[in-house]
Design goal:
The chain contains one helix and four strands; from the N terminus they run ββαββ. By secondary structure, the protein is mainly beta. It has one domain. The longest helix is centred in the middle third of the chain and has 4 residues. The two termini are 16 Å apart.
Amino acid sequence: MTTPAVPEGNRWRIVVNGDVQRWGTPIDADVRAKDVGSGVVPVERTEKPVETLTMTLNRKSNTSATLDIEWENTRVRVPVERR
């Protein structure tokens, strides 16, 4: 699966796509047909600038976590749950 992020001002749209070989653009109707879900997460400001794009999986429970994505002064927390 691939998971692109689409920045939208003070929120990001996270899209999960079932095609594991997918990377880059264009994102057309054929690509979107393989989307398996999406959601919107709010943007937070970091306390200090983050120079390198950083992704951290932070465990919250035995079945849930957040994927924290940080870069420059931006952080988004994507909830992840095991079914």
